[in-house]
Amino acid sequence: MHVKPVATVPSVTPPGADELAVADAQFLSAFGKRIRELRERRGMTRKALAREAHVSERYLGHLECGDGNASIILLRRIAVALNVSLTEMLTPAHPSSAEKQLISRLLERLPAHRLADVVMRLLREFAPDDTERRTRIALIGLRGAGKSTLGTMLAAELEVPFVELDREVEREAGLPLGEIFTLYGQAGYRRLERHCLERVLREHARAVIAVGGGVVAEEDTFALLLARCYTVWLKARPEEHMARVLAQGDLRPMAGHSEAMEDLKRILAAREPFYRQADAVVETSGQTPQESFAALRQVVGV
Question: How far apart are CA 188 and CA 186, in angstroms?
Answer without folding.
Answer: 5
